[in-house]
Write a structure and sequence with these properties.
By secondary structure, the protein is an alpha+beta fold. It is built from eight helices and nine strands. The chain folds into two domains: 196 residues, Muramoyl-pentapeptide Carboxypeptidase, domain 2; 118 residues, no CATH class. 49% of the residues lie in helices and 14% in strands. The strands form two sheets. Strands 1-2-4-3-5 form a five-stranded mixed sheet. Strands 6-7-9-8 form a four-stranded antiparallel sheet, covered by helices on one side. A hairpin with an 8-residue loop joins strand 3 and strand 4.
Length: 347
C-alpha cells in the first residue's frame, strides 16, 4: 500500500464494496419489506446526510458567498464529483441553476436500477434537495425535478429555483416533466484545484464518500425497523454483497482465494486497513481490529449495526473458500473493536 497506484486501486475496491452494500440495503428493504418502507428509509438517510454534510460542505468548498440556487447546485456538482459520481451543472441565472445526473446512475449501479421504484428516488430528493432552502435560511428556494432515471427517462435532472414568495413544505419539491435541462458546458462548471486534489486524495475521498452512506444508513435502519428486523436486513445484505464482491476485493487487495484460514485472515487485515482501521495480527488466523472507524463518534450507534460488518465478512469468506468459519468477539478488544478468528472446519 505504499505505492500510490496500488493504494488507489485498493481504495476504489473498498469504495465499490461499500457502494454496493448501500444500494443492496435499499433493494433489501424494497424486496423484503415494501417500496413504501424503502422510500421512508431513503428519505431518512438523505435527510440525515443533508443535516450532517450540507452546510459544512458549502464552507469547505468555498460556496457560501454564492446566490442560494447557484450554491446549492454547485455543491451537488462538486461534492458528487469528488465522490466519483458523474453530475452536470448548468447555470441559467443567480436564481436558477440546473443539475443533471446522466446515466449510468451511481447510486443504482448496474442492474439494480431495475428494482428501484420511482417513489424511492423521489424520497431521495425530498430528503436532501427539497431541504436546501431550509438549511440556507431561504424559504423561497425550492427544487424542480424534470426527469427521473428510474422512470425510464434519460437521467435524473432538475433545477434549483429561488421564487418570489416563501414556499410551503409541499412546494419545496415539485415535478415538471415537460421541461428539459440545457446542455452541459464544462467551461461554465466550477473546478477543484488539481494541486490540492491529486489522484490519491480523490481516491480516498471516493472511498470515504461510499463509506459515509453506509455509516449513515446503519443507525437509520436500526432506528426505523428495530434491532431484530433491521439487524437481519443489515446482516443478510452484507452476506449477499460480500459473496458477490469477495473475489474482486481479494484480487484488488492481493489476497487471492486458496490460502486457507491464514490467507483469509491476511485478506481481512488488508481490508480493514484499506478501510482506514487500525489492525494487528495476533496470530496467522486471528486479527485484532482496534476500532470500527466507520461508526466512530456516531451518537446513536447500536450493537446491531455490527451485523452489517459480520455479514460482509461472512460473505467475503464464502467467496474466498469453503470449509472455514469466522467469528468476532469483543473480549480482549479495544473499545469499539473486535477480535476476528478464522478457523478451518476440516479435521
Amino acid at each position: 500500500m505504499s505505492d500510490g497506484r496500488t493504494g488507489v486501486a485498493e481504495w476504489r475496491a473498498v469504495a465499490d464494496l461499500h457502494h454496493a452494500y448501500f444500494t443492496g440495503l435499499i433493494m433489501s428493504v424494497v424486496t423484503r419489506r415494501s417500496a413504501g418502507d424503502a422510500a421512508e428509509f431513503v428519505f431518512r438517510v438523505f435527510r440525515r446526510q443533508h443535516h450532517e454534510r450540507f452546510l459544512p460542505g458549502l464552507a469547505k468548498l468555498g460556496l457560501t458567498g454564492l446566490p442560494p440556487a447557484v450554491a446549492a447546485a454547485q455543491y451537488h456538482y462538486l461534492s458528487n464529483w469528488i465522490g466519483g459520481v458523474h453530475v452536470e451543472y448548468m447555470p441559467e441565472s443567480d436564481r436558477k441553476a440546473w443539475i443533471r445526473y446522466p446515466p449510468p446512475r451511481w447510486i443504482w449501479s448496474g442492474t439494480a436500477i431495475c428494482a428501484i421504484p420511482g417513489e424511492v428516488s423521489r424520497a431521495m430528493l425530498r430528503g436532501w434537495h427539497a431541504h436546501n432552502g431550509v438549511s440556507l435560511g431561504n424559504p423561497r428556494l425550492g427544487f424542480v425535478c424534470t426527469k427521473q432515471t428510474v422512470d425510464g427517462q434519460d437521467g435524473l435532472e432538475g433545477y434549483y429555483c429561488e421564487y418570489d414568495h416563501d414556499l410551503a413544505p409541499e412546494e419545496r419539491l415539485v415535478f415538471a416533466r415537460h421541461l428539459e435541462a440545457p446542455d452541459f458546458d464544462p467551461a461554465k462548471a466550477p473546478v477543484l484545484p488539481v494541486d490540492t486534489w491529486p489522484a490519491e486524495r480523490l481516491a480516498r475521498a471516493h472511498r470515504d464518500y461510499a463509506m459515509d452512506y453506509v455509516r449513515t444508513a446503519l443507525p437509520v435502519m436500526i432506528g426505523l425497523f428495530g434491532p431484530e428486523e433491521g439487524g437481519h436486513l443489515l446482516h443478510i445484505t452484507g452476506r449477499l454483497i460480500g459473496m458477490q464482491y469477495g473475489a474482486g476485493i481479494g484480487a484488488a487487495l492481493g489476497a487471492a482465494a486458496g490460502g486457507g484460514a491464514a490467507g483469509f485472515a491476511d485478506l481481512l487485515s488488508r481490508f480493514f486497513r484499506t478501510a482506514g482501521d487500525e489492525v494487528m495480527a495476533r496470530s496467522d488466523t486471528v486479527v485484532a481490529q482496534a476500532q470500527w472507524r466507520l461508526m466512530r463518534d456516531v451518537v446513536d450507534d447500536h450493537p446491531a449495526c455490527r451485523l452489517a460488518l459480520s455479514g460482509l465478512v461472512e460473505g467475503m469468506l464464502a467467496a474466498y473458500g469453503r470449509h472455514m468459519s469466522v467469528t468476532a468477539s469483543a473480549d480482549g478488544a479495544a473499545a469499539g473493536g473486535a477480535i476476528w478468528e478464522v478457523r478451518s472446519r476440516r479435521h
